[in-house]
Amino acid sequence: MAVHRIIEANAATLGDIPAIAAGGITISYRELNQRANAVARHLLAQGFRRGTVATVCLPCDAETIVVLLGILKAGGTYVLLNPETTRPEWPRGVSFAEEAEGDEVRYRMVDVAPALMGAPQSSANLPIVARSTDVACVIADTNGEPLMFVAHATIVSLKRDEAPRYTEWSGQSGALDLWAALMSGATVTLNAPALQSAA
Q1: Minimal CA–CA distance to 76: which of 3, 19, 143?
Q2: Looking at domain 3-190, what is its CATH homologous superfamily?
Q3: What mean pLDDT do residues 51-63 have?
Q4: Which of 78, 79, 85, 162 is most buried (CB neighbours < 10 A)?
């Protein structure tokens, strides 16, 4: 079982229950799922493929959660870096390595803003299969060096029937708490300054 499949099931059953809340703005489970589907389709259109590792260097906010879920839905893995503490040479935004000749590695930057801001063209979930053994996220240090590779199965094992109604998310250190909360149907609160909800 993949993390995003459980969240998709929650979107179907919980609908308008808040998935993310902060500063008086909420994103429901349905909206979270639809917007993440749009991000996944946008990534695939940009050459993203199942098994691709995306580097996400974005602030801790609701849009970042949508992007992370979109990466999982596209069959990928993410590395979340804090733009305030990460080395300045790391590109800000979302990027992934492209195949190149020889030892050369090229990174493609993907502007996810169009997918985040536009109304989803289709709310249907993507058929991409992710195995429970696939890596969902890589926890890295401030230099971007990997510390831990976390499989879908590991995160799914954190799902609790009796979860707190609200869980605060503050970034990478709470990456597993984020997914445990969303899989359990809780509302994730943020300590980030700005949130934007889709129109």
Answers
A1: 3
A2: ANL, N-terminal domain (3.40.50.12780)
A3: 90
A4: 78
- pLDDT tens, position by position, 132-150: 999 999 988 877 788 899 9
pLDDT tens-digit series, residues 146-184: 889 999 999 999 877 766 777 777 665 557 889 999 999
Residue with structure tokens 């926890």?
139
Tokens at residue 174, please? 């709470």
Structure-block tokens of residue 106: 């090229």
pTM (predicted TM-score): 0.89
* Cβ atoms of 123 and 132 closer than 8 Å: no
Closest CA to 96 of 85, 80, 110, 83: 110
Reading across the β-sheet that carries 93-98, which strands appear in turn? 106-110, 93-98, 53-57, 77-81, 135-140, 146-151
